Structure formats: C-alpha cells, structure tokens
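User: Hey, my collaborator sent me this sequence without any context and asked if I could get a structure. I don't really work with proteins. Can you help?
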Amino acid sequence: MKNMRGMTLLEVLTAVAVLGVLVTLAVTGMRGNISTQRENTATRELWSSALRARQLAISTNQPVRFVVDSNVTLPDGLQHTVARWERLKCGTDLNTPDEWTVDNCPNPACLATTCRSTPACCSETGPDIAIPATMNAANMHGLCFLPGSGRPAFNSMNCLQGLLSQPAQIAAAAPVDSSIQFRFTSKRAKSVLMVEPLTGLSSVMDCDSLAATTTDVSRKDVRLAAACLVP
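Assistant: No problem. I've predicted the 3D structure and written it out in structure-token form, which is a compact way to encode the shape of the chain:
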C-alpha cells in the first residue's frame, strides 16, 4: 500500500492565497456589474421621466420641472440622491383651483421651494429616481417643460414665470446639446440628454457610442460628438 502524503503548510497557505485572490476578483467584478446596472437604470428612467414631464406640461397646461435632492430616505431605509419631476400649480392661492396667468404660473410661493418641502405647490409629482453614488445627474435640476408648449427651459426653477409670452426669452433659456450631462466616477463614459429646444423631445446618448466616436463621417452624429467634448 502506497504512503499517503498530506499537504504541507506552505501548500495550504498557497491554496488559501489563490482562493482569496479569485474570490476578490469575483466580488469586484460583481460589484462592477451591479454599479453599471444601476447607472443604466437611472439613465433610462431620467430619459423616460423627461418624456413624461413634457407630455404633462402640454396636456395639463402647467409647468413641469425636475428637482434633484440629496439625502432623501427611500423605502429601502437608506438615504439617496434622487431626481423627480414636479407638476407645479398656477395662480395666487395654492388652496384654490388653477388660475392661469402668465405672471402667476407657476404660483409665486413655489419658486424658492420644492414640492418635497411644500407639497401644496404641486398637483402631481413623479417617482423618485435614485441616483447611484457613482453617477452625477445634477444638470437635471431646474430643467422645466413650459406649460402648453412643452418647450424646455434649462436651469430654470421658476419655469420662466412672467416670461411665457416672450419668445426671445424662451428661446434664450432652452438647453443646448451639451447642457445636460450624466457623469460617472466608474469607468463608464458620460452620457448626454439632448433636449430639442423647440419641441422638448429628448434622447439620451452615450459618449462612447459608435455615433460619437466613429471617424466615418456618414455614420457620425456631429451634434453628439461635439456635446461630448464639452467638459
């Protein structure tokens, strides 16, 4: 009968070290996949919410703006940075039905506050979209779709109150292609939410996509490529 030799201490330690490296690599890869999935989900939801906000601004004749808040406790019990749209009331009295006038749409009491702080300012709010820690969506804050037309105003928490009858002011407030960028601290390239200034329709594009990086002029999205170059 042959002698059975056990593993030496050095062999055991080597096996444990190799196993530890493999586990670490597996966990790191899993975390990276989860992070990417969360970034993708948040990006899609922000785009979908922008389309919904525009539709509501047209159909309800009320301004719909985006607000990004930090340290909001969600149903999971954790605090997140979140984005959502708010359909703002018009008129001078938040307790009465809408009284639409250019000077009072949105209601003057709602310009320096959000509907999270003052719920009475809103007829309706959208779902909270959790922004992953690896993602910056601050450019969404203050994006407003104007009542009736659905045209966009960038960085406009007041939704151009008092200026809705002035086409030049509305045109000047519209976002340009590079205005709304989603940046990531992960290895992912940034994305751009491109909002058409006349219609408010939006599309989200990735800066590492073929349309942005190709040298083939016939396949290149010139607007996207230019927007991606803006810091």
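In plain terms: The chain has one domain: 36-229. You can pass these tokens on to your collaborator as they are.
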